[in-house]
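Structure, all two chains, one model.
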Amino acid sequence: MFKATVIVKRRPTILDPQGKAVEQGARLLGFNNVRNTRIGKYIEFFVDTNNRADAEKEVNEYCTKLLANPVIEDFEYNLEEVSDD
Amino acid sequence: MFKATVIVKRRPTILDPQGKAVEQGARLLGFNNVRNTRIGKYIEFFVDTNNRADAEKEVNEYCTKLLANPVIEDFEYNLEEVSDD
C-alpha cells in the first residue's frame, strides 16, 4: 500500500482570484507583510498496490484526469510506502 | 523575506464529501486501487520581513483567522528564507 500526497497549483502565469481575494481580507485584518498569496489543492489518498511503478502510473492518471486541470494547473506528488492494515 | 507554504486539512474525524465525490469519479474512470481520498488546501505566499519570529507570528495568525477554519481544520506551515528581489 502507498500513501500519496498531491499538490495541485495554478501555473505561475495564471491569475489566482481566490488568492487575491483572501489577501485583500488579510489587508483588512491588518496583515501588511503578506504578499502574493496563491491557493492550490492538497490531496492525500492511498493506493492499494505493492508495486511502486503501478502506483505511480495510477497516481499520474488520477491527477491528470480528475485532480488537476492540465490546461491551467501543475501537479506534483509524493508516494510513500505504508504497511497494509 | 520568507516564503511560506501552508497545508490546511480537515481533521481526520471530519467527513470530507469533496474527497468522496472525487473518489466516486475515480471508480467510474476505472481507478480501482484508490482509497480514502481527502482534499485540503495548499497555500503559498511571501512574508515581507527579515525576522523569523515576526514571520511565524504573522503566518500563524493569517492561518487561524483566514486560511483555515480552526473548528474543523488543522494547518501546518513551513517558512523558508528567500532573498528579497
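Helices of chain A lie at 17-28, 52-67.
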